[in-house]
Amino acid sequence: MRISDLSRQSGVPVATIKFYLREGLLPPGNLTARNQAEYDETHLSRLRFTRILTNVGQLSLSSVRDVLAAVDDRDLSAQELCQVVNRALFAEHPTAVAASAGERVGVDTARARVDGFLDQLGWQVDPDAPGRVALAQALVGLQRLGWDGDVDMFVPYAGAARSLAIHERDSMPAGSAETVVARTVLLEVALVALGRIAREHYLAG
Amino acid sequence: MRISDLSRQSGVPVATIKFYLREGLLPPGNLTARNQAEYDETHLSRLRFTRILTNVGQLSLSSVRDVLAAVDDRDLSAQELCQVVNRALFAEHPTAVAASAGERVGVDTARARVDGFLDQLGWQVDPDAPGRVALAQALVGLQRLGWDGDVDMFVPYAGAARSLAIHERDSMPAGSAETVVARTVLLEVALVALGRIAREHYLAG
User: Which of residues B182 and B99 earns the better pLDDT score?
Assistant: First the structure.
């Protein structure tokens, strides 16, 4: 198909497609004439995937590039691919809470608690996983609000995360790495949306 | 305390505090001299809350303003406050997936399915709740990836959202509206982080 068909079928403007081509996010089409390139289903699916990453996952171009490289790298294990995706997702949402001089210690202590908590759950993840820092900062924020609870306030959330992750793994489609990653991003958005809707409903009850 | 103490205790730079004062996000201190204002614990807590909204919730200044006004409005019910917060949170993360001409219909159909699904769950939320659109767009995205499933693919996610919302309501601290909203924002970040960590662990298994 031509670039105009690619645009119509994907809903992505031609100018954006040209930008992706220039940036190397979309592989070039097959040149059929001096100024004419032919695109196929792989371009359409890559384009849709890129749009999910940018629009739904809110990834920057640089993070999109990392994820696309990981998706194309057949030597990566599922876990390694997941690590790249997590890093990209966290990069766009730095969750740093402002810390005063005294509270710097708080973040370090919280980080140690989070590491211990993950060990207790038996979750084996990269020691540098950005989620560890995000959790530590959420913990400091919650404690600063006057919680006297500790990391165990995350227990119900960890339980929910565990069962959803197992469900996600067991219902994994026999698809490309693209499909698997796109599903992850979309399901995460759906979970957040459902959580907000549920809160609105149950708070009224 | 002086503005410099406010800065030290909150970890927020003086320049940022002055900006918040100019923008009306932080109420003025008590003038004790021509160029000297005194701040108290309410300023410190408002400042910390504002930082959670901007840094953790990633809200724009305009959304922060809406949330602060809602938090200060004692006539709002818990549900109304929740609606304002949800609107603010969704405003920063438009989840639109690109739609081709044909797919526009897809989003409308998906929206009807989502509305039916929420009815079935018995969740009574604003007909204009932005979460409905977010879910519909996630559904379209998932179907476009080749899912033949329907909105029922959200069932496990809705189950997790329900039990977390009930837990959140039942463990609600006797605190200010500020505290309640801040907790919501922090716990949502924690849930997302735990979900990503769990995925990294269970994908390897």
Answer: B182
Calculate mean pLDDT across residues B22-32. Answer: 93
Q: Tell me how many degrees the CA angle B117-B122-B128 measures, rounded to the nearest 5.
A: 65
Tell me phi and psi for residue B98, to 5 degrees: -60, 135
Could you give the C-alpha distances from A154 to A69, A131, A144, in angstroms and in order? 34, 13, 16
| Mean pLDDT for all residues in chain B | 89
Residue A195 to residue B164, Cβ atoms within 8 A: yes
Residue A143 near residue A107, CB atoms below 8 Å? no
pLDDT per position as a tens digit, A141-175: 888 877 767 888 899 999 999 999 999 888 877 77
- State residue A34's pLDDT score: 84
Question: Nearest CA to CA, how far is A172 from chain B (Å)?
Answer: 10
Angle at B57 between CA B196 and CA A49, to 5 degrees: 50
Q: Phi/psi zone of residue B96: left (φ > 0), alpha (ψ -120 to 50 degrees), beta?
A: beta
Q: Does B86 touch chain A (CB under 8 A)?
A: yes
- DSSP alpha helix (H) spans, B126-176: 130-144, 155-170
pTM: 0.91
Please report how the helices B177-204 and A130-144 are oriented relative to each other, as an axis angle in degrees rounded to 10.
Answer: 160
CA distance linking residue A68 with residue A71, whole number of Å: 5
Grade residue A83 by pLDDT with cuts at 50, 70 and 90: very high
What burial class does residue B26 get, using C-beta atoms within 10 Å of its C-beta: 0-12 exposed, 13-18 middle, 19+ buried? buried
| CB of A88 closer than 8 Å to CB of A66 | yes
Asked if A203 lies within 8 A of B123 by C-beta distance, the reply is: no
Residues recorded for chain A: 205
Q: Which residues contact B186 (CB under 8 A, 6 or more apart)?
A: A138, A141, A142, A145, B52, B56
Decide if pLDDT at A23 tops 60.
Answer: yes
Smallest Cα–Cα separation from A138: which of B42, B197, B29, B165?
B197
Q: Is the pLDDT of residue A16 over 80?
A: yes
Instruction: Mutate one of A82, A184, A196 to test the B interface: name it (highest B CB count within 10 A).
Output: A196
CA atoms within 13 A of residue B21's CA, in its CB half-sphere = 17
Residues 126-155 of B with CB under 8 A from A: 126, 129, 131-132, 134-135, 137-139, 141-142, 144-147, 154
